[in-house]
Structure formats: C-alpha cells, structure tokens
Design brief:
It contains eleven helices and nine strands. By secondary structure, it is an alpha/beta fold. Strands 2-5-8-1-9 form a five-stranded parallel beta sheet. It has a two-stranded antiparallel sheet with strand order 3-4. Strands 6-7 form a two-stranded antiparallel ribbon.
Length: about 230
C-alpha cells in the first residue's frame, strides 16, 4: 500500500526493518507499478543514458522508468556526477524519471547522502569545474532502506539484538534531519510470517496496482492542469 501511494504521488520512501523483511524486493518492484514514460520524459532519460554510455544497444528509446541501485561504497561523484576531464552524469541523473534505491542507507558516507538534498529539492544537479559547468536533470523517486540497528535485529520479534541504545541512535543518526525531511513516506516493515507467505498466492499482481496508479496520476494531472506541478509530491 505504501508503494502504491508512493508511485501515485511521486513520493520519496524510507523503509526500516530487519533483514528478510523484503525491503529490497519492494524497492525493486516499484518501477513495475510506475506509468510508462511519455515521449518527452523518454527522450530525456534516453539522452542521459546515451551521454553516460549506459544506453542498451537493443533499446534506442527507453520507455520505462529506470531503476538505479548504487552500492553503499559509491563516491559523491558516482552518485551526484562529476569527473576531472569529462563531466558525466551520476546515479541521481541515471535515475531521472525513475527510482534511485539506496540499500543500507546509513552505510553511505555522510557527504554522499547530503549531496542528494539539492537535486531532491530542485530536480536537477549542477556540477561546476574550472573549465565548465554541467547541468543534468535529476528528478527521481528516492527509496531508502535501513536496518533498525547495526546488527539488523532491532525490530525483530525474536529479540536477538544486542546493540546498546546509544549505538542504535548513532547508526540511524547517519541519516540527517534535512534529508529525512524531504522523504514523505516512512514505514517500518517486519519479516513476513508463514501465513503471509501462504497468502501471497491471493495477492494482487503489479499490473493491477499499476492500473490504479495510472488512474491516480491521470486525476492528479487533471487537478494540477495549468500549474508547473505534475504529481502530489511536487
């Protein structure tokens, strides 16, 4: 349900829970319920991936929202963009009109996380070098996943966590207040029970959810006609 609301309104999402709760799986499914890119957005996304050299040879035009999940050891340049001689787009631009997923978000360096604040606010990233200034679009949906504590068992019903309270606070404090202030949806997720797994066979598929998301997007477009905004998150 949180993913559906996120997709319908274009909202950033934060998932916190122990390993095995399905945070990564949920994030990877989000692009599947997002509407296909319109022509203008498809051209933007295709141009970015062409400049970055990541455009698939068999797909000259990208029509689906991209999904980018950099590793937590990624540098500021890899996330935001940069380069000493040739300025290249980073993950925030490769995820333009799609999803940027940060798994184990507290493990990312503070400078990398804080570098997300400006593109989240403006929808673009400006990279200045001595020779030139490059401006790349970066209007993405951010999904962050985090364990509740360093050992990952803090929200587990098994009560296996041995992390002191101070260690838990320090771990989650790596996600700064200004960054979290830009995230509309924050959800605590738990490991599914055996009954939940049995019920998977009766759950809705992504296509059904995607149809409701598309309907919500159409209603938002009608309501926001004549304004510079497209979705509720704007």
């Amino acid at each position: 349900q949180a993913l559906e609301v996120s997709a319908a309104g274009g909202h950033h999402l934060y998932l916190q829970g122990p390993p095995g709760a399905g945070k990564t799986m949920l994030a990877e499914r989000l692009p599947g319920i997002l509407p296909a890119l319109d022509l203008d957005a498809a051209l933007e996304v295709t141009s970015i991936h062409s400049v970055a050299g990541t455009l698939p040879a068999d797909r000259p035009l990208l029509t689906r929202p991209p999904f980018c999940n950099p590793h937590h050891t990624a540098s500021v340049g890899a996330i935001v963009g940069g380069g000493s001689t040739t300025i290249r787009p980073g993950a925030v631009s490769l995820a333009h009109r799609g999803v940027l997923f940060l798994d184990e978000a507290p493990e990312f360096r503070a400078g990398v996380l804080d570098g997300l604040r400006q593109p989240m606010e403006s929808g673009e990233v400006v990279i200045a070098r001595a020779q030139a200034v490059a401006r790349f679009p970066a209007r993405f949906q951010l999904v962050m996943a985090a364990n509740p504590c360093p050992c990952g068992q803090g929200d587990s019903a098994d009560e296996l966590c041995g992390c002191p309270a101070a260690a838990r606070r320090r771990y989650l404090a790596r996600l700064s207040g200004p960054l979290l202030d830009r995230v509309d949806l924050r959800l605590t997720v738990a490991r599914p029970s055996r009954a939940d797994l049995v019920a998977v066979g009766t759950a809705e598929c992504s296509q059904v959810v995607a149809e409701r998301v598309a309907l919500a997007r159409d209603r938002a477009a009608t309501r926001l006609a004549g304004t510079p905004w497209r979705v509720n998150a704007d």
